[in-house]
Write a structure and sequence with these properties.
The protein is α/β, with parallel strands linked by helices and 429 residues long. It folds into two domains: 127 residues, 2-Layer Sandwich (Gyrase A, domain 2); 216 residues, Rossmann fold (3-Layer(aba) Sandwich).
Length: 429
Amino acid sequence: MKKIITIFILVLSVLFAFVGCKNTEKDNKDISSQPTVSSNGEQITSKSQNNTSSTSNISKPANTQSAVSTVSRPEKVAKIYNTKIDFTVATPKKDIFYDTKNGNTLPYNLYVPKDYSVSKKYPVILFLHGAGEMGTDNKTQINGIRNLLYYNADFVSQCILICPQTNEWWRLDRNNYGDEKGTLGSALHLLQKIQTTYSCDKNRIYVTGLSMGGYATWDVLERYGDIFAAGVPICGGGNSDNGAAFKNIPIRIYHGTNDQTVSFSNSQKMYNSIIAAGGDKVKLYALDGYGHDVWSFAYKCRHLSSWLFAQDKVNNPSGEYDYISYFRIVDSNGKTVITEEDIMYTDYTNDFENNSVALDLHLTEEGILKLNKAYVASKGKAFTVYCSTQKIYSFTATKSITDDVFSIVNVFNEDNFFDFLNMIQNTPK
């Protein structure tokens, strides 16, 4: 009888473990569900994540034991680097711009690289906030860009980011066409001041904005497009009767199809107008099911930052770019073997009190094939794991992966482990 009971308990345990595994897989896939590109390659659809707030809260996953057990890591660690992951950029300088050209006062936050040097030319981003952040507190205007500052900090930390704040609608002019007396005119004057104060790359000036700032982005691109190497208008709208003004500017448009605040048709009209004018540098990302808050998705996207910072009016006129992954395994020749795009979902186990932390990366079939092929070709030479630009550890492959799991064991401490996990799970590809 005891034997029967024992067998029954074991069967139940297996069933619970299987259900837990499938639920974990589903949950993680939902967290990291990625957009799919339509056949014309111009529009993207993505599951809605019910984004309703202009402020993105980044929190740690629950610090609990995973239902999925960790398999043994199939490699021998050659070297663990001093892992200190910092996903934030430098603290911004808060200042007030007194525009002598029109009398406006414009508070602004200015982000400058920590290792800024006058001997280097830096790309510049002008960020234009939405109506919900209007004011004079010189603080709330960065709410909408927090995901860029966090998930793409390695990009932003090497650029000059200007975040002005207006207490009225972003306008270029106030009384007459071309007078530049609106606060958007002052934002352009502030940009000019920053260019004369800091070592800026004039061929890599970018502008982006959301909602009201999305409208403003279209406005400055139409009137002063020659200044900018690229633009990213998000959930805004512009002058669709003048598509020719934008046809030579690299532009990526993001808009939710269920936007009840600014109609998706505004961005669709702009896209159609540019295409009709012969433009071939514009892409529209139609986020299926999303409402107004699509900036949380856009500014989290590694593809957007990889594309944006590659735009250079002189040195890259074709606008080509390489995807710069967040996570990657690199072989001894410096070739990237797999990235986060090869990860389906993640599981983890932790016992921080006893300094035991394991992260299981469940790879796609293609990811497994690529990694095993690299293992065979390595002939015992070391691989290196990178988190953004930082080296995590080196290892040599002792055997091929027999299932879909690549495990990282006892490399992270509690703080940088959850930062890493957040990035892997939540960064749109």
